[in-house]
């Protein structure tokens, strides 16, 4: 091998290393950012599902008498006139 060929190979390897790790946004940084972007998109999708679920619950609380009664019984301990409420209190 001649010196020119060795210098060319070394220069090519140097340029490849610069492309992968060099600069402000090298290939390694780009891969990390892409992974973070995918994670953030998954979080946004999960939050959208949660928002839709909460919006449905809010609609049901405003319009559905069965849901209103269930919440009144569970959270506020409300009962009908002919019922007796028993509360179990842990020790």
Task: Please supply descriptive tags for the structure shown above.
91 residues, mainly alpha, 3 helices, 75% helix, 0% strand, rod-shaped
Distance between the termini: 86 Å
Q: Taking Cα atoms only, what radius of gyration do you get, to the nearest Å?
A: 32 Å
Strand content range: under 5%
Low-pLDDT runs of 5+ residues are none
Tally of separate helices:
3
What is the element layout, followed by pairings?
Blueprint: H1 3-21, H2 27-63, H3 65-76
How would you sum up this structure, described in words?
With 91 residues, the protein is an all-alpha fold. It has a domain at 25-79. It is built from three helices and no strands. The protein has helices spanning 3-21, 27-63, 65-76.
Concise account of the structure shown:
The protein is mostly helical and 91 residues long.
């Amino acid at each position: 091998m001649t010196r020119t060929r060795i210098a060319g190979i070394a220069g090519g390897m140097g340029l490849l290393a610069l492309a992968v790790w060099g600069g402000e946004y090298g290939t390694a940084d780009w891969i990390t950012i892409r992974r973070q972007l995918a994670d953030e998109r998954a979080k946004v999708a999960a939050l959208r599902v949660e928002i839709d679920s909460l919006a449905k619950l809010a609609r049901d609380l405003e319009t559905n008498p069965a849901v209103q009664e269930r919440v009144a019984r569970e959270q506020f301990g409300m009962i009908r006139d002919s019922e007796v409420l028993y509360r179990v209190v842990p020790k």
